[in-house]
Amino acid sequence: MFIKTNVKQLSDGYLDRTPWFQYILLSICFPMWGMAASLNDVLISQFKALFTLSDFASAFVQSAFYGGYFLIAIPASRVIRRFSYKTSILIGLVCYIAGCLMFFPASHMATYGMFLFALFSIAIGLSFLETSCNTYSSMIGPKEGATLRLNISQTFTPVGFLSGILLGKYLIFTDGNALEKQMDMMNEAQKHDFALAMLQRTLQPYQYIIMVLIALLVMVAITQFPRCKPLDKEAHETQATIGETMRYLAGNGRFKFGILAQFAYVGVQTAVWSFTIRLALQLDGSLNERAAANYVIYAFIAFFIGKCIANFLMKRYNENQTLMVYCGIGMAALLYVIGVKDMSAVYAAILTSAVMGPGWPTIYAHSLDAISDKRHTETGGAVIVMAIIGGAVVPLIQGLVSDLLGSMQLAFVVSLLCFAIMFAYFWNERRIELSGQKTA
Fold first, then answer.
1. Deepest of 111, 183, 305, 346, by most Cβ within 10 A of its Cβ?
2. How does it sit in the membrane (predicted)?
């Protein structure tokens, strides 16, 4: 190890102070999965046109991506338990790089299924990263700052969102008419050649991502990180099995509500961003994909601003009350998206991004805090990450509703329901807080 740390490990796994270099390096991992996630929003529009997909079928981009999270989160937690958070981060970075490299054969094979497999491979790496980084960020310092630390780390995520959409806009999308309009004027042979050329463009963003990931991998490898695992009764804690943990979590009502809220949060975030470009293209026929991508850029900027405002508010006011207000604004904005038939509906969709930011880290930290038996912390964190499957399910449902109703706008009622679930969760957390109820 070339870069070391000198902090005191406390008995509950937290530290006496935050090692700032390690915390910053850890936080830099957060935009890396944001970058991959926002590129999916570009790929959905690209693949829908090139492979002639329905809204439902195009949403399988998100299903492949978030399905990988769901399947790998528990194995990642066992790696953390057996080895360390750092080991899990290193595995995540290596798998992420391998998944990006798979875009090269996918672009040459030019099949939708191969691209989905490449995205699934990327998600395996990201599952290791998120399972370790989210819990680790909350643990790497004093306990009283756990939620704030995670929220600050998550503030880096919009940088990744914005970087990914900019890479997609300028390296994947092109000028001229929308892809579907261009292909309508071609014969079958021309469509085939055009699709191959456009699919080759998907390689370029991932080439830049690979370079950044390699640099990050080296920095993490040469840096010493604290263990951040409970010291008391450690030998006994290592004996907790998956079955014991699952039985414990199944009887923890507060934790289960957190899983539902996290499912809804990732679902609404993914669904709104996945279909923002499609919504803009439907409401303004003069737009092409590159121009419509600007609205996703605005959404990510709004997400970042909203998150910074939330960090400020949550230090001065009650966290749960702040999030209830945010969810209320989100529901009102989505009612506008559903009901108004002009381009202002796109801006209302952008507004929802401004109130999404603090959702994930706050639900994560509260759900983790609901685990009073710390033998189950690593696996419990993995189960929270598994709730990311909402990003696979909700866009599919919203895409299916759009196809059945023939209206992208009416389909946003699915996202509205997700915000309602989140509102109920924070209301319940506030109720528990006021009653002084203990965690399970």
1. 346
2. Multi-pass membrane protein
